[in-house]
Specification:
Elements: E1 19-21, E2 26-28, E3 31-32, H1 49-54, E4 59-62, H2 65-70, H3 75-87, E5 91-96, H4 100-104, H5 108-123, E6 131-134, H6 148-165, H7 169-172, E7 175-177, H8 186-190, E8 197-198, H9 207-213
Parallel strand pairs: 3-4, 4-5, 5-6, 6-7, 7-8
Antiparallel strand pairs: 1-2
């Protein structure tokens, strides 16, 4: 069952911790970059959420901008993937973000709220079991980064949306920034009140930079 409510019908199986470093009280858990909407069947190449959970994964990313753009994933498909993940006991990392054209058109808030609404209104009170990642598409892998103030403004909108959907969920849901966070800008971004962490991309492949962010 999800932790948010004892009436939720979604199962909550045991999780396995990938690694724990007790001396530093550091817990490392792992996840997958994508998951299927299907539990089983003839879907060659798809990995079900149940399979990921049995492998010991704690998380699965859904709705990453590259999946939305390159694989034509719609809000409805992202919703289905997130629902399957939560039902399998995984925390879905739900990615939302606007393109440069959408930002220039003043549509940032409308876009991210639409993308998030598709998920939180479906999983209901289990919305407290997801992680939200704001990744402005124009700042992914480009070296461009939203200013801390720009990122905070969107994170504040997302937190308010989560709070409106489920009581107190805004205090439990982590909202990450995923637009080219690196060793040089992580401290200023993470100092913002509504930025709880980072969805690290390229910087995670550079060990000294990643350690500095941590």
């Amino acid at each position: 069952r999800c932790r948010a409510s004892t009436t939720c019908a979604m199962p909550w199986p045991r999780r396995r911790l990938a690694l724990r470093v007790d001396g530093d009280h550091l817990q490392l858990r792992y996840g997958a970059q994508d998951g299927s909407t299907q539990d089983n069947g003839a879907f060659t190449g798809e990995i079900s959420a149940e399979m990921l959970a049995k492998l010991g994964c704690s998380y699965v990313v859904v709705g990453h901008s590259e999946r939305r753009a390159d694989n034509f994933e719609t809000d409805a498909l992202v919703k289905a993937k997130a629902t399957a993940a939560v039902a399998a006991g995984l925390e879905a990392i739900v990615c939302v973000g606007e393109t440069l054209a959408e930002r220039d058109a003043g549509q940032t808030e409308a876009v991210v709220k639409r993308q998030l609404a598709a998920v939180i209104h479906t999983v209901g009170h289990c919305s407290s079991e997801i992680v939200v990642a704001y990744e402005p598409v124009w700042a992914i892998g480009t070296g461009r980064t939203a200013t801390p103030e720009q990122a905070q403004a969107v994170h504040h909108v997302l937190r308010a949306q989560v709070a409106a959907a489920t009581a107190n969920a805004d205090k439990r849901v982590h909202i990450l920034y995923g637009g080219s966070m690196n060793a040089a800008n992580a401290a200023t971004l993470l100092a913002m009140p509504d930025i709880d962490g980072g969805l690290i991309g390229g910087a995670s492949l550079k060990v000294p930079d990643f350690l500095q962010i941590i």
